[in-house]
Amino acid sequence: MAEDAKLKKNHMAIVLGIGLGVVLLIVLSLILTILINRRDRRSFLRSRKNPSERLRKLDKVSPTCTLEKWWMTTKRNLGLSEAVDGQFVCAICLEQVDRTQEIRELRCLHVFHRECLEKWFLGDHFNCPLCHRAYYVADTPPRNDYVWMV
Q1: What pLDDT does 43 receive?
Q2: Neighbouring residues of 103: CB distance < 8 A, sequence distance ≥ 6
Q3: What span, in angstroms and rounded, lies between the C-alpha atoms of 53 and 33?
Q4: Mean pLDDT of successive 10-residue stretches along the chain, which has 150 residues
Q5: φ and ψ of 96, to 5 deg
Q6: One GO MF term, please (predicted)?
Q7: CB under 8 Å to 133, separation ≥6 — which residues?
Q8: What's the whole-model pTM score?
Q9: Which of 22, 45, 42, 46 lies closest to 34 in space, CA to CA?
Q10: Of the candidates 91, 109, 101, which has an alpha carbon nearest to the alpha carbon of residue 69?
Q11: Residue 117: CB partners within 8 Å, gap ≥ 6?
């Protein structure tokens, strides 16, 4: 009888030891995750201070022009007849793009309002909103790229 009680105490001590070890590992991994994300967030915030500098980088891969000018050039390059009339809807705001509005064209030939694509880009989206093709490679990791440890 005394031996059974002693055995139960040993089993209880082992279970408690394993349980505390697991809890300790979880707490340490959470602390490490928070520290890594905080460090990455600080470097990200330093890089976000100057949006005009970031927009100059966007200009290199997607210069602005009016829809009218872009459509005339594109129609000619694709060999389309003059009768073809292009109606474009910005996939970001879902509004029609007027001929006189400034647009940005991506490498995939998708067209968006200038302001809409700039907001998209400044939100750390480096893929086309329609086809998800990358149009820009970020200097720093995007802010929504967190390291999670399990």
Answers
A1: 53
A2: 64, 65, 66, 67, 70, 88, 97, 111, 112, 113, 114
A3: 30
A4: 73 87 89 73 59 84 88 78 73 91 89 92 87 77 52
A5: -70, 145
A6: zinc ion binding
A7: 106, 107, 108, 127
A8: 0.57
A9: 42
A10: 101
A11: 58, 62, 92, 104, 106
The one-letter amino acid code at 1 reads: M
Phi and psi torsions of 25, nearest 5°: -65, -40
Residue 73 identity (one-letter amino acid): T
- Given a contact cutoff of 8 angstroms between Cβ atoms, the answer to whether 100 and 66 are in contact is yes
Q: What pLDDT score does 150 carry? A: 47
Q: Order the strands of the 64-66 sheet from edge to edge.
A: 64-66, 102-105, 111-113
Query: How far apart are alpha carbons 28 and 20 in whole angstroms?
Result: 12
Nearest in space to 63 (alpha carbons), one of 137, 123, 134, 114: 114
* 88 CB-near residues (< 8 Å, 6+ apart): 67, 96, 97, 103, 111
Contact 127, 16 (CB under 8 A): no
**Are the beta carbons of 112 and 121 closer than 8 angstroms?**
no
